[in-house]
Structures are given as C-alpha cells and as structure tokens.
Specification:
By secondary structure, this protein is an alpha+beta fold. It has two domains: about 1-190, Beta-Lactamase; about 200-355, Alpha-Beta Plaits (2-Layer Sandwich), CATH 3.30.70.270. It is built from ten helices and eleven strands. A six-stranded antiparallel sheet has the order 3-2-1-6-5-4, with helices on both faces. A five-stranded mixed sheet has the order 8-9-7-10-11, sandwiched between helices. The protein is elongated, with a radius of gyration of 29 Å.
Length: about 375
C-alpha cells in the first residue's frame, strides 16, 4: 500500500508538471498567432525557458550569415552585462559547437570537459559555469541560432527532460523567426523597387510627408535631389533593355555607396531617382549632388559585359523650407531644376533658386 500511495503521489506531481508545461507552451502558441513582433515572442519564449528549466543564466543567440558567427540577442539572469558585444565563432564553446553540428548538447560537469572548461576560463563571464545545456534553433534544416542555459538553480545537472523542453521552445523560436522574416520580406516588397532594390515611389511619398511634418514640428530642414540619366534611351536602343536595366542597377549601387544610411534613395521611375537628405541644408545637398555627378562620370558601366560605357546625369536640388512649404511643391521644384540642368547642356547640378532666372526653359 505505501508503494501505491507513493506512486499515486508521483503520478499527481508528474501530471501537475505536464499541465504546467502545456500552459507555458499554449502561452507561446498564443503569442505566435497574435503578434508579428519578433521581440515580444522571443521574450515570452525566454520567460518559459526560465520557468520550465530554471537556469541561473539563459540566452538566445542568432547566426550572422555574413560573418558566419553567433551574437547574443537576449541574455537573462547573470549573463546580460557579461556578454554585451560578445560574438562566438562556429564551433567555439558549447553554443558554437551546437550551432556547427545542429544537435543539442548537455555538459553535465563543465570542469570535467577540458575543451569547454578552458574556453570558459579564457572567456570569463563573472561566474562559474558548472552545467550547460544548448539546443539549436533550426529552420528548414538550417541552424539559425542557439538557446543556451547555464547552471540549474538547484545545483543539479541539466537532464534529458530539460533538453526536450528546450528543443520544443527552440522549435517555437524558429517559427517566430521565420514568420518575422517572411513578414519583413513582404514589407520590403511593398516599399522597394524590384530592379534596383531601392525604395519605390510609394515609399518616397510617405517619407516626404513624414519629413515635412517632422521639419515643421521641430523647426528643422531637409533637402531633395532629383536626378535623371542623360540620353539613357540611347543605351537601351544600342545595347538593349537588359543592358539598360543592368546600368540602372549599377547607378543604384553608386548612390548607395556614396550616401548615408539615413538618406532615402528611391527610384522615381525609368531612369529617374530621388534622394531625400534629412537634416541637410541646400548648400550641403548641392555638394552631395556634385559628388554623385562625379562618381557617375568616373564610373565605367557594364564592364562585366565586356563594355565600358560612360554615362552622365543631370541633377536638380531643392530644400525645405527654403524653396517649398509642402512635399508636392518640393518634389516639383527639384524636378524642374533637374529639367533645367538638362536644358542647359546636361551633366550638371542646378538648384531651385535658378528657376527664377530661366522663365522659359527650352526643351532638351
């Protein structure tokens, strides 16, 4: 009878734990279906890591595809300050090894594992790592990150059940990351030009509206550059539209390399581009336009195709509030200034002020 009582007690405890785990996973599932904000979902997943596995420290690392290393996205417990700016190479430490081979790993006693104890000694985190559990975050058979837990609060090693729970949480993290990436791709498709990958006309109008409102509210300034390639039709006629498209892509690359991250570069249509320069006075915008003009002049286009074409562009510059009080007028004036640059011989920069001296702009 005593054995039966003990068994029933154990069953009740197990059932209680299972119900608790189900409750946590339902919470994560609800978050996955109710929000596209990745940060919120990952925070909930990390809360559940703490509640279910009870580690002293726990973290989530993601793989940087360009650098092929891991960086900390979230760190909890005693880790946050210790891992700021820390990056792990593939195969480095427990998390790096798990990312490299895509399999979960429990290190029950770090001190007995020379490979990891020496690594942790050389990368002191401010506390002693006794036991470590890492599981890979896998999406489409590719490891995209790692969930890491260090030291159980009750001083026991991590065990198989901990690994199973962590694997389930890692699977949910993978779903959240994939959904977020898909959403971001869809959002990018809605605001970017298919060919050049610059922002499109829809996004340009949105940015101009926001910049005007912000400038009025904070009494600040911004400028717009409108540029159009000179005689671009000849490129299409002589070399074909495929080569013409590649030329536009090269122009886009020149603009991206030359400008700041805060600057908004958009393809207006055809071979026309519009650049929004936040917090930039007209005088500086002119210098920027002149630099872009030189960059385009000095570039040899279509070298990969066995050609070395020379292309030029005409630029129009207008500023807010110097030349216009709303986004439509600002865009119109920068466009007219560009048109004047064409009429005056192409391959030059014209500021909106000059429009008053050329009432009758001849066709170019």
């Amino acid at each position: 009878m005593p054995n039966l009582i003990e068994e029933n007690k154990e069953l009740r405890e197990n059932l209680k734990q299972v119900k608790k785990e189900l409750s946590f996973f339902m919470k994560v599932g609800k978050a996955l279906t109710s929000t596209l904000e990745l940060d919120k979902v990952l925070e909930i997943i990390m809360e559940n890591v703490h509640c279910l596995v009870k580690p002293e420290s726990w973290s989530l690392l993601l793989l940087d595809d360009e650098r092929n290393d891991l960086y900390y996205v979230i760190a909890k417990g005693r880790l946050p300050d210790a891992v700021k700016g820390v990056r792990l190479q593939m195969g480095e430490g427990v998390a790096g090894r798990v990312a490299e081979n895509g399999k979960p790993l429990i290190i029950s006693s770090v001190s007995k594992e020379k490979r990891y104890s020496s690594f942790l000694k050389n990368n002191n985190r401010g506390f002693i790592s006794k036991s470590i559990l890492c599981v890979p975050i896998i999406n489409k058979k590719k490891t995209i990150g790692v969930l890491e837990t260090i030291n159980k609060k009750d001083n026991t090693p991590f065990h198989k059940r901990d690994m199973e729970l962590m694997t389930k949480l890692a699977d949910q993290a993978a779903i959240a990351i994939e959904r977020s990436n898909l959403y971001q791709k869809m959002a990018n498709l809605a605001i970017t030009d298919d060919l050049t990958k610059l922002f499109n006309l829809r996004y340009l109008y949105r940015v101009l509206d926001l910049e005007v409102k912000r400038s009025k509210r904070y009494n600040s300034i911004f400028s717009v550059i409108f540029l159009d390639l000179d005689c671009f039709k000849l490129v299409n006629d002589k070399y074909g539209h495929l080569h013409g498209s590649k030329t536009l892509v090269e122009v886009a690359s020149i603009l991206v390399r030359a400008l700041r991250e805060v600057d908004i570069i958009s393809r207006y249509g055809g071979d026309e581009f519009v650049i929004v320069l936040p917090h930039t006075p007209v005088e500086k915008a002119i210098r920027i336009a002149e630099r872009l003009q030189r960059d385009i002049n000095h570039h040899h286009f279509l070298k990969d195709e066995g050609l070395a074409l020379k292309v030029t562009a005409s630029f129009g510059v207008a500023g807010f509030p110097d030349h216009a009080q709303d986004e439509i007028e600002l865009l119109r004036l920068s466009d007219q200034a560009m048109y004047l640059a064409k009429s005056l011989g192409k391959n030059r920069v014209v500021i909106a002020n000059e429009l008053s001296y050329h009432k009758n702009i001849p066709p170019y």
